[in-house]
Amino acid sequence: MMSGTSMAAPHVAGVAALIKQRNPSWSPSMIASAMATTAFTYDNGGEPIMAHSQDIYSLNRSTPFDHGAGLVNPTRAIDPGLVFISGFEDYMSFLCSLPNTDPEIIKTAIGEQCSHSFQAPSDLNIPSLTISALNGKQSVRRTVKNVADTAETYVCAVVPPNGVAVELNPPWFTIAPEGTQDLEVILEVTQVQDSFSFGEIVLTGNMKHIVRIPLSVLPASMPEI
């Protein structure tokens, strides 16, 4: 109520309804993934929404913490190619893996016990990746599902955040309809920064699907020698 959402909330809700009408079996996480990974990264005037240079960010440009994945693209969101799926158990594992979390508080609030937790909160299978303190080197996993009607081959590319080297395995893959593919993202600090740096992973398919995943990383310390 204090900050408001202007017309963003009804617009996004309307797009979500369109996606659900076209894909009745999709879960909320699939719909949210479709909107995020297919968003425009340039505004109507051709200005970049998502810049990658720290120098550009210093000129009072917004960051992914402000604009998210970009501007919603309803046409592409209906047919995103790949989606990231998370369910109740995944979010429970996320909550239970947060630092300094009291399992009893989670049980009281949600009614479920912490039976499992991720190695790190960043392992939650969502279409973005944030690491609040990258110390040396860390591996993060994601799983995508092909919701297209045909098999597709994707090539992986990375625009790394400043001070971070990013490796994606596998660098390319072919995925069948309704098939899944595990991805390993390896991040390593190359230069310590005093603030978050931003980049993105881009998966480009031979059937013209483009899947973008924002990266937000604070490189805290160099790898041990």
UniProtKB/TrEMBL annotation:
UniProt entry tagged with the keyword Cell division: no
Lineage top rank: taxon: Eukaryota
Domain Peptidase S8/S53: 1-48
Name this protein carries in UniProt: Subtilisin-like protease SBT2.4
Ranges for domain Subtilisin-like protease fibronectin type-III: 123-217
Keyword line: Hydrolase, Protease, Serine protease, Signal
Pfam family, one: fn3_6
Protein family (similarity comment): Belongs to the peptidase S8 family.
